[in-house]
Design brief:
heterodimer; A: mainly alpha; Fumarate Reductase Cytochrome B subunit; two-stranded antiparallel sheet; 10 helices; elongated; B: alpha/beta; Rossmann fold; Cytochrome-c3 Hydrogenase, Chain A, domain 2; 3 domains; two-stranded antiparallel ribbon; 9 strands; 40% helix; heme (chain A); electron transfer activity (chain A); membrane (chain A); transmembrane (chain A); iron ion binding (chain A)
Chain lengths: 264, 364
């Protein structure tokens, strides 16, 4: 399928190309009548294309490394005397891992932005929130009520639910941009005046005034993203169990499946 | 301006030999990071150029900049004061006092309109119409504005004039304000530090006299030749930093071995200054070499960045002091506890729904 075809498939209609299920279940047995019935009800939608999924997991790995090494850079591990200082490079490697992961994260993020233009409509969801749409606000409140146990049943979502959408836009799109900009501004300090990083990001230090203050802002940003990661992982697992659609497998296979056949 | 002698004439009049003069030129070139080709240039400039009049005013400050300045080794402050500049007003260093001193200020401004350099040590407090700092019966801010009006350029000496320093630290009761926020229409060179390194101060002046222009400034208005790198970038303890070898406690084994002071709150990695290269007191030492971390005295708002002995800045908000890590761990703990509670509630709800569904099924 070319890009045109993929984006033109209406996303609320079950994928007509999905193979007829049940053949194997019938043959191998173990399936009860109601299992087969329920299988028939399920539809699958291709939501996250390969580049989005690869970006997600690369990003997750990079963020994990960045948080761990970033924390260690601010609060170094105990002094180690493995060898003479010239032969020992412990803190240097920690910082190297941090900078390298930061570079990978940045390049991956740029690739992700590019893919928002050429990918399917779900690839664009991360980059804006439809604040002008009343419906979106209503649905966000509904989802918040579901999390607060005030709604009996959640709604079905093909892409991100409005609450997740809001969180991802805030912490990933805005938050990660903030971390990339402040991160490179700090990197520019070591790279030196007149370097590529200094000419692109040196203005940030001028704006903040004091490098120590810039470090603190970058550090607080790390904690914001850490909190998001905790929320995100918990919500993904919980939604996988309690919502009406697949979550974790979707970010691996790309396909969103549903657990019932009701429209709302 | 014809009545002013050249630097060289003054030096010769003071009995300085030509040989010493040439030596001085080479030393100055070296201090400015210039090649040997610049020595004759400096000599030529000093032989032909008239001395530049300088007015040196003092606001809210501790005079540590002046104290540092007079200890300059290369070039000697004596050379700078007596030979290179015509220091026509400096209420700390000048012989005249009282009305005579103030008259000298007026004379200089009148005589060299648009040609003198204004050096500002300290800063003006703006609250209560500037009444927290009175010079000659008038608020300092008035003297500053008056002297700045016809100045060619302004040098902001030290952290006070550049950023505000301790008197501008929160809550800044007198509203002490750095010079560039009061005088906005003149070129300003910031030479921060508490105090700035003596050789940096005299080096900046020598540069301006030799080349008749301002030194290259960075984004914050500091001379690039002295403030383009952090203490950390040229620190002789840097190998221990990269190795991950830190002083863990004052006077521990690692402190005696001269390991990196990062964990003791050294602000070297966030401070732009020339301490680790030029050093202090004729190049004898600098704080880190003496076993104490850098306190970041040449940085904007260095009094408000938490303890001198912590890497993580204290964040003051709602009257509660905390570092980013304390905030982070508290938030992460709260989120974690919240999630545990949410998991429990979710499980209960699910169990409840299951039993309800089962009951419904039975009814059917």
């Amino acid at each position: 399928m070319n890009v045109e075809d993929r984006t033109s498939i209406p996303i609320h209609i079950p994928n007509p190309e999905a193979p007829t299920p049940l053949e194997a279940a019938r043959l191998t047995g173990g399936a009860r009548a109601e299992d087969i019935e329920s299988l028939q009800l399920r539809a699958a939608v291709y939501v996250y294309e390969m580049p989005v999924r690869i970006w997600h997991w690369v990003n997750a790995l990079a963020i994990t490394i960045l948080i761990v090494t970033g924390y260690l850079i601010a609060s170094p591990p105990p002094t180690m005397e493995i060898a003479e200082a010239t032969d020992q490079f412990v803190f240097g490697y920690i910082r190297f891992a941090h900078f390298a992961s930061g570079m990978v994260l940045t390049v991956a993020f740029l690739g992700r932005i590019y893919f928002a233009f050429v990918g399917n409509r779900h690839a664009r969801q991360l980059f804006y929130i439809p604040v002008w749409r009343k419906r979106w606000w209503k649905e966000m409140i509904f989802e918040a009520r579901w999390y607060a146990f005030l709604e009996k049943e959640p709604k079905k979502y093909i892409g991100h639910n409005p609450l997740a959408h809001f969180a991802m836009f805030t912490f990933i799109t805005l938050g990660m941009t903030f971390m990339i900009v402040t991160g490179f501004a700090l990197y520019a300090e070591g790279a030196g005046q007149g370097s590529f990083y200094d000419s692109w990001f040196g203005w940030v230090l001028g704006l903040v005034g004091n490098s120590q203050r810039l470090h603190t802002l970058h550090h607080l940003g790390m904690w914001a993203i850490t909190l998001f990661a905790i929320f995100h992982i918990y919500a993904a697992i919980r939604e996988d169990i309690m919502s009406r659609q697949s979550m974790i497998t979707t970010m691996i296979s790309g396909w969103r499946t549903f657990k019932d056949n009701r429209v709302e | 301006m014809a009545e002013i002698e050249t630097f060289y004439e003054v030096m010769r009049r003071q009995g300085i030999t030509r040989r010493s003069f040439m030596k001085y030129c080479s030393l100055t070139a070296a201090a400015l990071g210039l090649g040997p080709a610049f020595v004759p240039k400096i000599a030529h400039a000093m032989e032909t150029k008239p001395r530049t009049p300088v007015i040196w005013v003092h606001g809210l400050e501790c005079t540590c900049c002046s104290e540092s300045f007079i200890r300059s080794a290369h070039p000697l402050a004596k050379d700078v004061v007596l030979s290179m500049i015509s220091l026509d007003y400096d209420d700390t260093l000048m012989a005249a006092a009282g009305h005579a001193a103030e008259a000298a200020l007026e004379d200089t401004i009148e005589k060299y309109k648009g040609n003198y350099i204004l050096a500002v040590e300290g800063n003006p407090p703006l609250n209560e119409d500037g009444m927290f700092c009175i010079i000659g019966g008038k608020p300092f801010v008035e003297q500053l504005r008056h002297a700045a009006e016809h100045a060619k350029a302004i040098i902001s000496w030290g952290a006070c004039a550049s950023y505000g320093c301790v008197q501008a630290a929160a809550p800044n009761p007198t509203r002490a304000t750095p010079v560039h926020k009061v005088i906005t229409d003149k070129p300003i060179i910031k030479v921060p530090g508490c105090p700035p390194i003596a050789e940096v101060m005299t080096g900046v002046i020598t540069y301006m006299l030799t080349f008749d222009r301002m030194p290259d400034l960075d984004r914050q208005g500091r001379p690039k030749m002295f403030y383009s790198q952090r203490i950390h970038d040229k620190c002789y303890r840097r190998p221990h930093f990269d190795a991950g070898q830190f002083v863990e406690n004052w006077d521990d084994e690692y402190a005696r071995k001269g390991y990196c002071l990062y964990k003791m709150g050294c602000k070297g990695p966030t401070t732009y200054n020339a301490c680790s290269t030029v050093r202090w007191n004729e190049g004898v030492s600098f704080p880190i070499q003496s076993g104490h971390g850098c306190i970041g005295c040449s940085e904007d708002g260095f009094w408000d960045q938490g303890s001198f002995y912590d890497r993580l800045t204290t964040i003051k908000q709602f009257g509660i002091e905390a570092t980013a890590d304390q905030i982070g761990f508290t938030a992460a703990g709260a989120v974690g506890a919240g999630i545990v509670a949410h998991v429990a509630a979710s499980a209960l709800k699910r169990a409840q729904k299951k039993s309800q569904d089962a009951a419904k099924k039975e009814e059917v």
